TrEMBL record:
Cofactor requirement: Mg(2+)
PTM note: Carboxylation is probably crucial for Mg(2+) binding and, consequently, for the gamma-phosphate positioning of ATP.
Name assigned to this protein: UDP-N-acetylmuramyl-tripeptide synthetase
Taxonomic placement: Bacteria, Bacillati, Bacillota, Bacilli, Bacillales
Family designation: Belongs to the MurCDEF family. MurE subfamily.
Main localization category: cytoplasm
Residue numbers of N6-carboxylysine PTMs: K220
Native source species: Sporosarcina contaminans
Cross-referenced PROSITE patterns: FOLYLPOLYGLU_SYNT_1
InterPro entries linked to this entry: Folylpolyglutamate_synth_CS, Mur-like_cat_sf, Mur_ligase_C, Mur_ligase_C_dom_sf, Mur_ligase_cen, Mur_ligase_N, MurE/MurF_N, UDP-N-AcMur-Glu-dNH2Pim_ligase
Binding site residues for UDP-N-acetyl-alpha-D-muramoyl-L-alanyl-D-glutamate: S30, N152, T153, T154, S180, R188
Amino acid sequence: MDTEKLFSIIPIKNIKGVLPKSVTDIAVDSRAVSAGGVFVCIEGFTVDGHSFVQKAVDQGARVIVASKPVAVDLEKVAVVYVKNTDRAIALLAPHFYQYPSKRMTMIGVTGTNGKTSVSNMIHTILQHTGERSAVTGTIGFNLDGTLMETENTTTDVLTTQKMIHQAAEADCSTMTMEVSSHGLVEGRLAGTEFDIAVFTNLTHDHLDFHGTMDNYGHAKGLLFAQLGQDLSQRKFVVLNADEPWSERMEKMTSYPVLSYGIRREADFRARDIVLSPDGTSFKMETPVGDFTVRMNVIGEFNVYNALAATAALFAKGMEMEDIINGLSVIPAAKGRMEKVETDLPLTIYVDYAHSPDAIEKAINAVLPYKKAEQKLIFVIGTGGNRDRKKRPIMAEKASIADYVILTTDDPRDEPYESILSELEAGMAHKRYAAIGDRAEAVKHAVSVADAGDIIIFAGKGHEDFQIVGHEKLPHSDAAIALEEAERKFRKGFIETE
Ligand SMILES: CC(=O)N[C@H]1[C@@H](OP(=O)(O)OP(=O)(O)OC[C@H]2O[C@@H](n3ccc(=O)[nH]c3=O)[C@H](O)[C@@H]2O)O[C@H](CO)[C@@H](O)[C@@H]1O[C@H](C)C(=O)N[C@@H](C)C(=O)N[C@H](CCC(=O)O)C(=O)O
Ligand SMILES: Nc1ncnc2c1ncn2[C@@H]1O[C@H](COP(=O)(O)OP(=O)(O)OP(=O)(O)O)[C@@H](O)[C@H]1O
């Protein structure tokens, strides 16, 4: 890109050295700099990008954007000094990629729980009708079927713009993004113009970061406020009528609202819900008539997710018949009440619930069809060095299960003892075990199971690792459970080791 054009977008304090005519790329990570590119130094929570300038230059950076003095050979490299590099990258990134979000329908999904599920429902329904679609969030960046890893649910502003650009270049008509409260507060969505903003719910989580529920709710509200005030644009807000915070979200936007829900009046409302172990069916009342929905995913929470996805796609202009057909083929999002295939006499689900409300919803997804003679065993852990206030509330919700195993979910630097004792404080009954080592906790769940029982492993979901100390160690609840179940339930099982 033409260098002068690129930098015309930011306020500059001064320039040292001579700017090249053009630059090839832009990076905020010295390890990702390409020859002839720009490196923008970001002061992070952990390290200061200014200390990687030499590394960036060694990688071929031709221009450095900095807010503090940096020592480089000005014969070879130019330095653009700005007041604030965070602000600079927020302006440079969308400008560099030529505002790609304007080239597609952009759907943003926020809320404590359900972002991944709703986003993936939208994506799958779009693909089912033959549309090219991209989705990004906790599971990664899915560019019309090709999945790429991402660092965050809502990535930094540069990565976000790059992904939107890639989706637009790949002729995707729609990009759906999970929007985290952290992403909103830290400005990772600068330059992303959403057409449809969806709200799922707001319950206890991330209070280590936001401090209070009020701050957390207002952080989520930024998505609706940031839709802007240009009412000549066709934009929509999709809100959960059964969620008290929706009223506040409605006040934060000027655009038309489509509501969805079960308990209260709504534009998209589900009734006659039938929950079963193999799927869910219900009648959906919509502004254009009633429809019968059959889905393979389980749990009432997925009825909410389906209603949210439907309202968003309706707002986009999709035919209701196409939406209903699409809902019939959606698989469980990876690691969200995902049934583990086995012919052994156990029903095993892997789930990502790691907030009190999600735990309650996950357990309630199986209770309607659990038989009196079946035990529901629930394994739940929390992360170390993160929101501690939610621990006892998580255990209290988990107590709905017949037997609970309290464990860790990425203990990081925190000792098992404090994580477990803070969880134990919330237990409402004594039918539980507290086991710090997650692999041992999984084995224990199988050891206490009788044939026919149901086990839910919550917290890890799609993740295939456990962070212990600063190391990311391989870990799979499903693999450990299946191995243990083979040993316990398979007749004639022979140990291979
Ligand atoms: C607390 C927080 O928001 N941290 C984010 C932040 O990390 P940081 O400030 O520590 O970054 P840093 O490591 O200090 O690096 C500073 C700069 O130096 C650069 N650098 C670094 C090393 C190097 O060798 N060279 C180099 O140039 C980095 O690229 C960066 O530009 O910037 C990183 C890059 O954008 C993010 O990946 C990281 O998210 C971490 C992984 C994280 O855990 N974030 C959580 C709190 C979060 O954001 N979660 C939400 C989801 C919540 C939910 O479950 O709903 C999310 O959206 O993911
Ligand atoms: N609408 C919902 N309401 C409450 N709980 C839900 C809902 N949808 C999913 N869940 C529960 O929350 C867990 C996480 O779901 P999902 O990944 O879709 O949410 P998320 O908002 O993307 O979460 P995260 O930001 O932590 O990735 C699921 O495994 C399920 O137990």
